[in-house]
Amino acid sequence: MSDSFPRIDEPVAREQVVEVCRRMHAGGLIAGGEGNVSVRLSASRLLVTPSGVNKGFLKPSDLVAIDLQGRPEARGGKVSTEVRLHLAAYRARPDIGAVVHGHPPTAVAFTLAGLSLDQRLVPESVVALGEIPTAAYATPSSEDVAAGVERLICEHDVVMMERHGSVCVGPNVLAAFDRLESLEHTAKISFLARSLGVPRPLSDDEVARLHRLAEAQGGARRPRTQARSPAQPGPDVDALADEVLSRVLKALSRRE
Ligand SMILES: [Zn+2]
Which of 10, 19, 82, 206 is catalytic? Predict the structure, then answer.
């Protein structure tokens, strides 16, 4: 296991996971006992949310430390079978420190309708989220779901699972949550645009320009596997996205 992921103290990680779960529940990105969140504490330890409880009301002590086979360290720790998604993501991405799995309703509705979220409508999502692939339907909690995510997450920070939900990854749990929030926001904008007419995607030239700006700031978003080799950790993608977005907004405002 590579050790290129960002380190975090366990008490801080517990507080951040609880806060992210609270925001996911408050934001309607999970409901009931849905969703799960994890943080990589070390090369051999993960911290995950417990199964069978509403994640909107967790305490830091409710979280469960597990090994890389998904086995709880302490007796009595209950872990969802969906932990397979998380283990698959960490296997595929040695650079990430956190995984957030939610059921964002608008984004999931797109998969029910057979519509892709990879529509290149909004500059922010093009830069901050990149391409958003959708894994074909598989029975929730099955190994097939984990395998589908593992294939896609190595090249992407956000993956949709058909008829199910999303997997967002990041250097830490706050960054992964930001991607989930942006994903649902982008899906809502796309839905509204479709209800008003036929959305006009950004041109290939403009998308290429956005990617060139991203590259000029320190690295391309793709191909992910080359950009994030353990020997050469990737750029701070979140800072990069902020910078590129502000440049794009400035450029757009100059045109008006
Ligand atoms: Zn789920």
Answer: 82
Active site residue 73: no
How far, in Å, is the centroid of ligand 1 from the Cα of 145?
Answer: 10
Instruction: Compute the distance from residue 161 Cα to the ligand 1 centre, in Å.
Output: 9
Residue that terminates a domain, selected from 170, 196, 222: 196
- Residue given tokens 């969802």 in the structure block: 80
Mean pLDDT of the chain: 85
Q: What is the pTM for the complete model shown?
A: 0.83
Cβ pair 46, 86 in contact under 8 A = yes
Ligand 1 centroid to 160 CA: how many Å?
A: 11
Task: For residue range 174-190, list pLDDT tens digits in order.
Answer: 999 999 999 999 999 99
Per-residue pLDDT tens for 97-126?
999 999 999 999 999 999 988 778 888 888
- 96 burial (CB, 10 Å; 0-12 / 13-18 / 19+) is buried
pLDDT of residue 127: 84
* Residue 4 placed within a domain: no
Residues measured by CB to lie within 5 Å of ligand 1, the ion: 165
Structure tokens at 113: 């309708």
Cα 55 to its chain centre, rounded Å, is 17
Ligand 1 centroid to residue 163 C-alpha, Å: 10
**Residue 137 domain boundaries:** 10-196
CA of 36 to the centre of ligand 1 (A): 7
The Cα–Cα gap between 175 and 164 comes to 22
CATH code assigned at 24? 3.40.225.10
In this structure, the answer to whether residues 104 and 121 fall within a common structural domain is yes
